Structure formats: structure tokens, C-alpha cells
């Protein structure tokens, strides 16, 4: 064997093994996620950001974690470049590497974020209100329901699925000697699992649209590195579980459409019911599921139609009790109005109802321009425009991640690249909707496109509705409509699949996506490097 052949053989061996490993990960994503979470649990006790733990003398643990994450990013990019240079990358393996980048980003964020940082309605346990206290109730009372009106304590009115699971997780940790405070902070591991599970489900939904190649990798990259999935990974509240179950319900309905079996529709029923047992807003995906079911009934013929229609009763028998038992219990036992939602008083500093509608729709606070949401009530710097708040909270939630330097630059690039992608997704949604209405859509999966468009417009309409029916600053939060990321990215992918190679706007979308992903990673990695760089 010549030396050239030997070199080629030696080079092909590692590449082949690496490619095979990526193929295995692509074939078993759930096992890969469980293994990754298990690895994270091994280092989590060492990296409790709020406990002041240090990896080495003089080096804060958050800095060490971010350095490790940076090395991981470089390694992933090197692997992608190596495989691409040798023509062995492919879109499936590229998606595995994107998912790995998502896990690194979110895992890093979790490790550098305490359980009281950048949260929603989460307070110190000593205050006995908020999501932490709700979970503590179940910890201390053996998962029994509250013996008092849940509406009398802040956040106890939420359906209890997430809080019960979190309480069981805390109890399990306590059995192996983890302190109560650390056990509560480790609830973020559950949130990380939920957002990564939502990413896997999102991939399946993109594939259900018939996407592959660049039409798949571009929208999947947007989903993997979208900041909403990152900051939700550090939540203690019920939003991450609701997100995963909502997307799972849509995927199960799509799979039922392809093969309308009783088992498939029961999975859809359980996912939809459990989503609403986690948070009432889990019902936002119900119209999409209903459209899928109606399409399945219409498509069926004869005995098959009767069989498909007959499956609707088992769906209701499973879904309705899971979804509605909590509001029914609150109504029957405590006399609360059915599905009551607590409202803030109009005396709240967050109240926006006294502002003219024209100002809220079209006005911009030119005196306090920032890529971060304004929450300075003393100076009057508050957001009132739902569109502006939507763009800001989708990237940074309600936090200010940086005030100067390269970190602020990264956040600024992230914000404006996202604005560009939002404009593209709106254009793609309009075009797809018009083509569907005119029945000129010839894609292999028009029902999937119709569902993506319906979910996109429905969530956008819901956001604007609650922004005006519940006119408070905190209402204008992107966390209520995170599934729109999957719908919008999917519609971008559909449009890319339809476009001819070399179209200028496709190249523009690829550039925007690359800038978006890089800026997202830098913005959230920078949280652990504050005060160092």
C-alpha cells in the first residue's frame, strides 16, 4: 500500500467512525438527550452559580463553565467543517450538531443561572408564595392538593402537573442527601430536559412538512439557538413543560393523520390534556389539532371514516378529564369561576390601559431606546407597544443581559438579525396563507403548511388580544407564544424548499440565520463571563 493510500485510509477511518456516531445519535435522539442530562447532573452540584462554588482557586465556576462551553462550540464547528470539507456532513448529521450546540448553549445557561435569576413569579421559599412555594407545598404534603383556596396564594391557581413533577424530583434528590436549596435549583434540569425535548419534537414537525437539506437545517438552526428556548431552560415555572407537551400534541395529531389508529389518537389526547394540566394556555394548540382531525375525517371513506370518527370519543374521554379536572375542582370545591385567571389591579405600575390604542400600536419610546425591555417605572421607561415588547422579550425575556462592550454588541446583533428573520417569517406566512386560500399550494404536505400557518397567526392574534384585554407590561411577553418559533421557522423552510437555487432572499436568510445563531450563543455565554471580559 502506498503512503498516499495509507494516509487516505487513516483519515477516512476516524471520519467514518465519527459519521457513524452522528448517525446513531440521529436515530436515537431521546437516548442522546437522557445521556446528556445524566452527564449534566454529574457536574451540576459543582456549578451551583448561586452558592459561590469555585472550580479552581480564584476562578468562579461560571467562568469555568463558559470556557468549557466555548471549547465545545469550537469542537462542534471543527467537526462540521471537517465533515463538510470531505463531503460527509449531510443535513441529518448537521442537525445532530445543531442539536448539540443547542444543548451546550442551554446547559451553560442553566449552570450559570440561579433559581431566583431571570424568573417569572418565583420568590424565595421563605416568602411562601410563587412557583417555588407551590412546589414546596407538594414536597411537604406528599403531593396532596392544597387544603385551601388555591386562588388565595400567588401562583397556586395554576394546574399542578409541573409542580407535582418538580416536587417529586426535589424529594428524590433529598433522599440522596441534596440540600433543599440545591434541590430546588436543580429543578432547572427538568426545564432543560423539556426544552431539549421540545427541540426534538420540533425537528419531527419540520420533517412532517417534508423539509430536508437547507430547507430543514436553516429553520432547525433558528429553533436550536433561539433565545426563548435558552432562557426557558432556566425556568422554575411551568412554561417549559407546557411548551413540550403542546408541541407533542401537534406532532401526535399529525402522526394520527398519517395513520389513524386508536393508539395514535390517544397519545394526542394525553399530550393535549397534560399540556392543559400544566398550564391553561396549553389549549392554544387545540385549534390546530382540531383542523388535523377534521382533515382526517374528510379524507377517510366508508368504514374507515366511521372508524376514524369513532376514535373521537376515546380522545375526548382521555383529553377532557386531564385538561379540565383542575378548574372543575376549583369551581366545585372552592366556588371559584370556571377557569378564572387572576388579574392585576389597575393601580399597578404596570397598567397600560390608560394609554391610547394608537400610541400602543404605533408609538415608540424614542427617549429610552434599547434592545432590552424597559422596566424603569421611576423614570417612566416602560414598554407599551406590543410589537416592540414581543421582539425584545423573544430575545432577552424581561432581562437586561449587558450594558456595554462586546456583550452589548452581541445582543444588538442578535436583536436586529431576529428582526430580519421575523420580517421574513411574516412574508412567508402571508405567501403560504394566500396560496392555501387560492388552492395553489402544490407542496407534498399542504396540511402541514396549513397547520403551521394557522398556529402562527393564531398565536400572534392571541398575543395582541391579551395585550389589550389585559393591558399590563408583564402580559406582553413572548413566553406565552413560544410555539410560534417552530411555526414561523417551518414556514421559512417551506419557502426555501419552493425557491430556486441561488435566490437572493434565500442567501439573505442564510446570512441572517448564521448571524442570529452566533450572536445568540455569544449573548448567553457572555452571562457567565460578566466581570471577566
What does this entry look like structurally?
- The protein is mostly helical.
- It contains 21 helices and four strands.
- It has helices at 3-27, 29-43, 61-85, 90-111, 131-140, 161-175, 180-185, 187-208, 214-224, 227-232, 239-258, 262-278, 286-299, 302-310, 312-334, 357-362, 386-396, 405-437, 446-469, 483-498, 504-525, and strands at residues 54-56, 59-60, 375-376, 381-382.
- The protein has a two-stranded antiparallel sheet. A two-stranded antiparallel sheet has the order 3-4.
- Strand 3 and strand 4 form a beta hairpin.
- Helix 8 (187-208) packs parallel to helix 11 (239-258), helix 11 runs antiparallel to helix 12 (262-278) and helix 11 (239-258) packs parallel to helix 13 (286-299).
Short description:
With 533 residues, the protein is an all-alpha fold. The protein is built from 21 helices and four strands.
Amino acid at each position: 500500500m502506498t503512503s498516499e493510500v495509507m494516509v487516505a485510509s487513516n483519515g477516512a477511518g476516524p471520519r467514518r467512525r465519527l459519521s457513524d456516531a452522528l448517525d446513531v445519535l440521529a436515530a436515537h435522539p431521546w437516548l442522546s438527550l437522557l445521556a446528556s442530562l445524566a452527564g449534566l447532573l454529574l457536574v451540576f452540584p459543582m456549578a451551583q452559580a448561586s452558592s459561590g462554588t469555585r472550580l479552581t482557586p480564584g476562578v468562579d465556576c461560571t467562568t469555568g463553565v463558559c470556557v468549557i462551553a466555548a471549547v465545545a462550540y469550537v469542537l462542534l464547528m471543527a467537526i462540521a467543517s471537517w465533515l463538510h470539507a470531505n463531503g460527509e456532513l449531510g443535513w441529518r448529521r448537521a442537525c445532530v450538531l445543531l442539536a448539540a450546540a443547542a444543548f451546550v448553549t442551554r446547559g451553560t445557561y442553566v449552570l450559570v443561572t440561579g433559581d431566583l435569576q431571570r424568573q417569572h413569579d418565583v420568590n424565595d421559599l421563605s416568602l411562601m408564595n410563587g412557583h417555588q412555594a407551590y412546589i414546596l407545598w407538594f414536597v411537604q404534603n406528599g403531593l396532596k392538593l392544597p387544603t385551601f383556596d388555591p386562588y388565595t396564594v400567588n401562583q397556586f391557581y395554576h394546574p399542578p402537573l409541573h409542580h407535582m413533577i418538580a416536587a417529586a424530583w426535589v424529594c428524590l434528590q433529598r433522599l440522596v442527601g441534596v440540600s433543599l436549596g440545591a434541590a430546588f435549583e436543580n429543578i432547572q434540569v427538568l426545564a432543560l430536559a423539556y426544552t431539549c425535548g421540545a427541540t426534538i419534537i420540533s425537528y419531527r414537525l419540520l420533517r412532517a412538512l417534508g423539509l430536508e437539506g437547507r430547507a430543514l437545517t436553516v429553520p432547525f438552526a433558528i429553533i436550536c439557538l433561539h433565545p426563548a428556548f435558552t432562557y426557558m431552560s432556566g425556568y422554575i415555572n411551568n412554561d417549559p413543560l407546557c411548551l413540550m407537551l403542546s408541541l407533542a400534541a401537534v406532532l401526535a395529531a399529525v402522526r394520527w393523520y398519517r395513520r389513524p389508529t386508536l393508539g395514535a389518537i390517544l397519545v394526542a389526547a394525553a399530550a393535549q390534556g397534560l399540556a392543559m394540566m400544566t398550564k391553561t394556555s396549553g389549549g392554544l394548540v387545540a385549534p390546530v389539532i382540531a383542523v388535523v382531525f377534521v382533515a382526517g375525517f374528510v379524507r377517510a371513506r366508508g368504514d374507515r371514516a366511521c372508524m376514524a370518527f369513532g376514535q373521537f370519543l376515546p380522545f375526548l374521554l382521555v383529553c377532557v378529564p386531564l385538561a379540565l379536572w383542575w378548574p372543575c375542582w376549583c369551581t366545585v370545591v372552592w366556588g371559584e369561576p370556571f377557569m378564572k385567571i387572576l388579574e392585576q389591579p389597575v393601580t399597578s405600575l404596570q397598567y397600560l390601559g390608560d394609554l391610547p390604542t394608537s400610541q400602543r400600536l404605533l408609538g415608540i419610546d424614542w427617549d429610552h431606546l434599547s434592545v432590552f425591555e424597559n422596566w424603569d417605572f421611576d423614570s417612566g421607561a416602560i414598554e407599551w407597544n406590543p410589537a416592540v415588547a414581543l421582539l425584545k422579550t423573544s430575545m432577552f425575556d424581561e432581562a437586561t443581559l449587558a450594558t456595554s462592550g462586546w456583550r452589548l454588541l452581541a445582543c444588538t446583533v442578535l436583536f436586529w438579525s431576529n428582526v430580519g428573520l421575523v420580517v421574513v417569517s411574516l412574508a412567508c406566512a402571508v405567501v403560504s396563507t394566500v396560496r392555501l386560500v387560492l388552492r395553489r399550494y402544490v407542496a407534498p404536505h399542504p396540511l402541514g403548511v396549513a397547520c403551521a400557518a394557522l398556529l402562527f397567526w393564531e398565536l400572534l392574534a392571541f398575543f395582541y388580544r391579551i395585550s389589550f384585554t389585559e393591558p399590563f407590561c408583564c402580559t406582553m411577553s413572548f413566553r406565552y407564544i413560544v410555539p410560534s418559533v417552530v411555526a414561523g421557522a417551518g414556514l421559512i423552510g417551506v419557502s426555501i424548499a419552493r425557491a430556486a437555487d441561488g435566490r437572493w432572499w434565500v442567501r439573505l436568510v442564510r446570512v441572517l440565520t448564521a448571524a442570529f445563531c452566533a450572536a445568540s450563543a455569544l449573548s448567553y455565554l457572555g452571562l457567565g463571563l460578566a466581570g471577566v471580559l
